[in-house]
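Table S5 (text form). Sequence records supplied for joint modeling of the two-component complex.
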Amino acid sequence: MVPLIFDRVSFALPDGTELLHSVAFSVGSGAVTVLAGPSGAGKSTLLRLGNRLEVPSGGVVRLQGVDIATVDPLQLRRRVGMVFQRPTPFAGTISENLAAASPATSIELRQDMLQRVGLDPQMIDRIADDLSGGEAQRMCIARTLLTEPEVILMDEPTSSLDPENRRGIEHLVRELAEGGASILWVSHDLAQVERIADEVVVLLDGRNASTANAEAFLRSGDGGGSL
Amino acid sequence: MSSTQIGWAGLGASLILVVVAIALSTWQQLRLTRSIAWASARAAVQLLLVGFALRLVLDEKASVWWAWLWVAVMILFSALTIRSRAREVPGIFVLGLVSMLTVVIVSLSVIFGFQVFPMEGRTIVPLAGMMIGNSMTSCVLVGRRIVGEISDKRDEVEARLALGSSWQDASRPYVRSALRTALVPQIESTKAVGLVFLPGAMTGLVLAGVDAVDAVTIQLAIMYLVLGSVATSVTVMGLGLTRRMFTPDHRLRPIARASH
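The corresponding structure-token record, covering 487 residues in total, follows.
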């Protein structure tokens, strides 16, 4: 079953301004789906509808075929994880940050998770605020992975990182997808789309402009211009 | 006990000190002359009006209900004042009303329930005034602080929500910090009392001729009352406000930024 489906989803601000209009696409299983488009196209808003940080004004978001409006939001958000544009370390140590996601996990499991995202397990007692941008974002990914999500939403997670860290996170996300994770990644960087995408959904002015597999997208005229 | 009454002549003589303040302002070119004169005149008119009204309310023959009516008006005005000082805080007027009402009910129940003071007009009005006055400032502080903390740390709060935390858990570190900020000044002033300054009630009692130790016991009871009142009002305001900042399905509502 397709893990996450956006079925003709619309979103309007309280004043009636419509930011998204009848957007429809699905996030493939064990794949990286990139949601591409220029700034202000509604990509981040659409992503936030996937774990009910926002609620659509029309249409339905389905997780494993079930309307997410009928699922307990606290459980839903553990099944649909989210990594934000800027790293969001909480006050305290890395270990305490990981415990915020899953208090019952052992230190060993937390260290294993750090290793999985490319961080030194010996860093576990370091203060999270002292980490570099790249390290902090990896820790945030580890924190999200500890909830064992079925789908991971990533809102331009490398936009504040240098090229080396950007490549590192991209490599990690490719590995996660090849390990079976379903990922919806927001980007407006075409070179990045080429590096990481299996599927591409282009959003323009809050509407679907096109949906294609990455190869077809990059061969087409859509992939030739800037987003 | 000797009674201390300064009379109209005494009050007039004390104005010499206002003249001193005005003279200093003029000498140093502070441009505060009109402000000092206006503040002094306004204080005199306000307090004299209050004094005459209180004389009616506190009259031994007057019904105690007049005192309770006075308290109700104080609660209303305190909520209006809280709103005027923290307009950016959503629903602050109703939260202010609820906080002050809770404070009055809880604190006066203890004070009169345990017969710390007799329940009469002359005790109800000043005790409620002291609780409400102190709580009002702390409520403004905690309200502004919570809105500031949660809007500054919006990304962090949403990251916690995105991990499956409830709004209570997601907001707890920031609310705790705001509550501490609002309560610490009250705790500090409670610690410093007697060493650094003599509090108003005690000063007033000593001036009125009450024995110093008797004045201290009354002052201590009032201080504990104020400390408990501030803690209660700040908690009610803090938790009520935080609840309003989230939707029932654990989403953070948009926050209007302060315009100051």
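Note: Chain B has nine helices and no strands.
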